[in-house]
Specification:
The longest helix has 29 residues. Helix content is about 40%, strand content about 15%. The radius of gyration is 25 Å and the shape is elongated. The strands form 3 sheets. A 6-stranded mixed sheet has the order 3-6-9-12-14-15. It has 7 helices and 15 strands. It has 2 domains: about 190 residues, Hexapeptide repeat proteins (UDP N-Acetylglucosamine Acyltransferase, domain 1), CATH 2.160.10; about 50 residues. Helix 3 packs antiparallel against helix 4. By secondary structure, it is an alpha/beta fold. A hairpin with a 4-residue loop joins strand 14 and strand 15.
Amino acid sequence: MFSHLREDISSVLQRDPAARSRLEVLICYPGVHALLLHRLANWFWRRRGYLVARFISYFARCLTGIEIHPGATVGHRVFIDHGIGVVIGETAEIGDDCTIYQGVTLGGTSLYRGVKRHPTLEAGVVVGAGAKVLGGFTVGAGAKIGSNAVVIKPVPPGATAVGNPAHILEPREVREAKPDFSAYGVTRDMDDPVSKALHALLDHVYEQDKRIETLSLTLKEAGLCVEGDIENPKPIDRDFLCKIVE
């Protein structure tokens, strides 16, 4: 367990530029705490200590905001960044060197006991913030899941899946996207609805600001009263103002 902990701390230092020391990671990173407690809970789970395992899992959720079922399988050097709202189901399997951001759900679409209900992430998979991976299929090694994507079918190794429902980006789309992947959904070219809505809102605000600035300058040049210039105001001619707006 302690060898796993050392690997977890090292992986955080390598992948998070905000991390400054091993002590800081050990004390202040909830993803590290959640993984440590999960390994303890999983130890009891595999020895049929189900109640103790579930209690440890429940305590970890209260402490970190990360819910990992004690029956889930988690590999080495897994990095859960921020972590609030992460849910990992009982039959989920997470390979080595995976990265999971906040709000991710590795969930199931079946209620049958004794079957594989949750996804398998092979080594090196990155799952962006808010993504939902639902079902007992496999996400191939090195694949990337875009933020807020809803994945309900297998993802090939090395592929990038985005959107709701998720689709696989063609190699040309991945090359043209700048940057090629973002775990937080801030790119413009990739098919992320949250990203598109934010960019559209910012563009609208920018255009409105330009129009207001142009109108203010035109009124001031015409000698009319504008904000901050209340000395000697002149009445505004309605027809003149309509021509300016047009």
